[in-house]
Structure of Protein kinase domain-containing protein:
Amino acid sequence: MVRFTTSARRVKDPATGAKSVNQYRILEQIGMGTYCKVKWALDDEGRRFAVKSFSRCVLQNKMVSHFDAEGASTVPLKERIDEELRILSELSHKNVLNLEEVIDDPEHDWLYGIFEGMPGRQLMDWKQDCLAYSAGSDESGAVRRSWGDAVQAEGLEPGQFEVIAFQEVLARYLFGQLLEGLAYIHEQGIIHKDLKPDNLLLTIPVPSSDSRFVRLLDIEGWPQLASRGDAKAGEAAAGATFLEMLRRVGMVAKIGDFNSAVVCPPPDFEIYDAEGTQQFTPPECFLGSSKGVKGKPRDIWSMGCVLFIMLYGRCPFWEKENIVLQCKIMQGDLVLPKGGPAISNEVQEFIRVLMSNEAALRPTATAALQNAWQTIGRYAL
């Protein structure tokens, strides 16, 4: 049950400069969105949370676009944020980020969303120098605290054109959990519209120096890949013992950041915009239809992009100019990289199905959970 608090007490310790809001001691910043800051916080019992803070002045004065069956309009940003927090307050699932409390004091300068802490942070991080995503934590201490001596925590240092991608068995384990979360929010009539590695979170960090979990890919010759390290490590990780370790330590993936999410009416759950991140937006959203597009296949295409990136590092479609990117996505010429450690034919076909150019050919999240690749070894906790 989400707590809604209408009074905020902000205190700054004159000796240390440490700040607190109500029972939460604010720590270091861990992220920044377009309109908010995200910081770690500890409550009076030492529990870790992520605090998303919004400037009330910005919320009240900034107008943002809104699209529905009636056409385009603008609404105050505060209305959008209120809707995000309302949606999250009504969700409860092990694979959806949990909103714990909303602190909204009209006399206070800031609005706060208090979320469960996710020490593993986001699924993968963007590397601007090679225009790709890379997995894993570079903090060996954080890995040790979560995994103990069960994993190798030091030693792997990617080069400029190298990325850390997931071994296929770990990708299947985490992706299945994300599909569980997506099936749940779709059952609630919610379309996320911005599913990407940045908005998918982990309870504990990925051991990025342990080759049972990850593989190091050289993407300089994209779409031809090269790799270094133990090519058989992924096969070693495929057994029941490895999966049991993942379950035992509580490695869980969750869907977060519902800023673009909308509640849509059945049966088609239509959306009327291409809001979100363009690299993760399916072709039908760029056709400019006033009739809207079906929302659930829109999220499924995005998830196909996520799985592609988990295995290969790069986005399936990438161009610097948005109009060129949109044209490539609409053409639908999906190229799966060659080289590097072997990726199964089953997962390659699964990606093609999730990213079908025709929305009607994409499976629902529930059906995707029963795909032949997804059921290998069964990931469920």
Observations:
- The longest helix spans residues 168-187.
- The radius of gyration is 21 Å.
